[in-house]
Design goal:
Elements (H helix, E strand, L loop, with lengths): L2 H30 L6 H15 L9 H24 L16 H12 L9 H4 L2 H31 L9 H26 L10 E4 L5 E4 L5 H9 L14 H4 L2 H25 L3 H28 L2 H4 L24 H15 L13 H12 L10 H21 L4 E2 L2 E2 L2 H23 L1
Antiparallel strand pairs: 1-2, 3-4
Helix pairs in contact: 1-10, 2-7, 3-4, 3-6, 6-7, 6-8, 7-8, 7-10, 8-10, 10-11, 10-13, 11-13, 11-14, 13-14, 15-16
Length: about 450
């Protein structure tokens, strides 16, 4: 890996290490409901939403009511996003005259974005209107991330509290996460992306004449606003078909670096949020260290593998050396602006955070490089994982580890001052087993 590649990775690691604790403390303050100077800005807006939606912010919920609220909100989100796609041709902000999306694709997209999966089987600029991108996908990029972070906050309260049967109020967590965390971060992020060349307009396709004498259609749209929250919320659903490999989504090299930072900052910062909320900062540092070691291992290994190229290609006369016109290494399926190193760091970070964005095609990686990305996915999104869900997954593994260690030394295992016994282990194993059961069961069917 080149000196520039090492410099990029070191700069990203240092930036995360400096800013993650600060952001983590701020998010903990948000979830603890403490007063701050920002109450003048967000307080009136939140109170208006509470009043319109008839929410009592002082009333907390037990786990079953919290879960029902979360599932009901997500179900309504699926229905609304499905409806917007099905009637988009009759709605405004459709400069390219996009037709209504087919029922099966509408349902697939709705479920994908509401669950923060963001798996896409369409080309964004050729399928969805600007209104669908803004009101449908961008909104879900915000609230699906907020739902995951709200569930994380409830889980932490369950671990930290003693003698209480409530874990917070889902609606309050959802609103405060959206208004006080995601919207400000995404607003600043969109401004930075605009400065880096990411487009933001309501234009349709613009026909231009090329130097060769032919014509080409240049797409437009509200891109920067969507890309900012897509990365911050570890969503990954792109405005364009080729996702972040498109120059209008990534812009300059600095824009690509900022998006990589946006993908990783919130999941890493939540480790410090956890430490503050359980009143034990050492726990937060321990979680952060585990996440950082796993992330660094993949972010170092994958660039080295991809910049080294595939030795089998040398026998076929393919040049993989660094030259004045090529960064060297395995350039197959990679954007030339980024090269193999930046693309590899991006791939390591996105597969470890469950972020679906790509700036290089994973199926074009070397066999060993592809092995690293697959191993990242198999880790279960814990290093650092998606916003909220990554931290929860890692804490479940911590509970399992504490229980096994307790059995080995013959003592009743405890975590955060609470005994880990049969009931806790049944719930932890249910969390571990439910995903493979669903995936393998539906695959077999």
């Amino acid at each position: 890996m080149s000196a520039a590649g090492w410099g990029e990775l070191i700069a990203l690691a240092v930036l995360l290490a400096v800013t993650a604790p600060w952001l983590g403390r701020y998010m903990a303050h948000v979830y603890e409901g403490g007063s701050s100077r920002l109450d003048r800005v967000f307080g009136p807006l939140e109170r208006f939403v509470y009043r319109v939606c008839r929410i009592d912010p002082e009333r907390e919920q037990r786990w079953n009511a919290y879960t029902i609220s979360l599932l009901a909100f997500s179900a309504v989100g699926v229905l609304l996003l499905y409806l917007i796609q099905r009637i988009q041709s009759n709605l405004p902000f459709n400069p390219t005259d996009m037709v209504n999306v087919a029922p099966a694709l509408s349902f697939n997209t709705a479920v994908s974005f509401v669950t923060n999966t963001n798996w896409q089987s369409y080309g964004g600029e050729n399928t969805l209107s600007h209104l669908t991108q803004m009101m449908g996908l961008t909104v879900q990029n915000f609230v699906s991330a907020a739902v995951g972070m709200a569930a994380m906050a409830a889980f932490i309260r369950g671990l930290a509290r003693a003698g209480r049967r409530t874990i917070g109020n889902f609606w309050v967590d959802l609103i405060r996460t959206t208004f006080r965390i995601l919207v400000p971060l995404a607003f600043v992020g969109a401004i930075i992306l605009l400065a880096c060349g990411v487009i933001q307009n309501t234009h349709g396709f613009t026909t231009v004449h090329t130097i060769a004498g032919s014509t080409q259609k240049i797409p437009g749209g509200p891109v920067a606003s969507q890309i900012s929250i897509k990365q911050l919320g570890t969503n990954g659903g792109g405005f364009f078909n080729v996702n972040s490999a498109h120059p209008f989504e990534g812009g300059t090299k600095l824009g690509d670096f900022f998006e990589l930072y946006a993908i990783t900052i919130v999941p890493f910062a939540l480790a410090f949020t956890f430490g503050r909320m359980v009143k034990d900062k050492r726990q937060g540092y321990a979680v952060f260290a585990i996440m950082a070691v796993l992330w660094l291992a993949a972010s170092v290994a994958l660039p080295i593998i991809e910049s080294g190229g595939n030795p089998k290609l040398d026998t076929g006369g393919v040049t993989q050396a660094v030259t004045a016109t090529s960064p060297g290494g395995n350039m197959e399926g990679k954007e030339v602006r980024n090269g193999p190193v930046s693309s590899a760091i991006w791939s390591a970070s996105t597969t470890l955070t469950s972020n679906g964005s790509v700036n290089g095609m994973h199926d074009s990686y070397t066999p060993l490089g592809g092995l690293v990305t697959m191993a990242d996915m198999k880790l279960g999104e814990i290093a650092p994982g998606g916003v909220g869900t990554g931290l929860v997954g890692l804490l479940i593994l911590a509970i399992l580890s504490v229980f096994i260690a307790g059995l080995m030394v013959g003592r009743t295992p405890e975590y955060l001052g609470k005994k880990i016994e049969g009931r806790e282990m049944k719930l932890a194993m249910l969390y571990v087993l439910v995903f493979p059961l669903i995936i393998l069961g539906l695959s077999a069917w």
